[in-house]
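Batch manifest, entry 17 of 40.
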Amino acid sequence: MNRRLLALASVLPAVLLTAGCGGGRHQASSSPPTRTQSTTQQTSTSPGALQAEAASVATGDIPDNQVYLVYHSSDGWSIKYPEGWAQSGSPRATVFQDKNNIVRAVVRRGSLPSLGQVRSDPALRVAHITSPPAVVAPAGVHAIKVVYTTRSAPNAVTGKRVTLTVDRYYLASAGRVATIDLGTPVGVDNVDAYRLMIESFRWR
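Output type: structure tokens
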């Protein structure tokens, strides 16, 4: 019996020491992590500007005999796009792209922005604002057309930048707004192809 008591007495301090150390680690891990609160405010009334990729291979004109497919979004809109182009995003924010030929459609609830909001949008370098033709904005659709430019980040090796000229359309109907950007690298002619695409846009 005495031997058992002596053995227990020799083990007990080690057990208490281990428990104390473990409790200290648990207390430290239960402290709430420090979080950095973002103070950035979103002042833009629309999606940001399109961005090209300086590392991308040069993009050519869309050929006249290009075949087009129709993208039907589950969010209630559709648009034609060139067969073979990569498609990414979601039903509310869809991108069609072939290298630096880029078309993006973003749909949200809301109304058409004012001309003042468009002009002061910090995301855009606005060249000019116009009213699109009636074929793009039929009866019941309110619209604004904006032309802006954007430059890619420099290529890490060559320092080269790609400049896009972007036609942006705001198309509003029945409490929804579609912001559609059609971007073309400088020196590339996609006028006819992009006209076909924007005129194919439909609300469903």
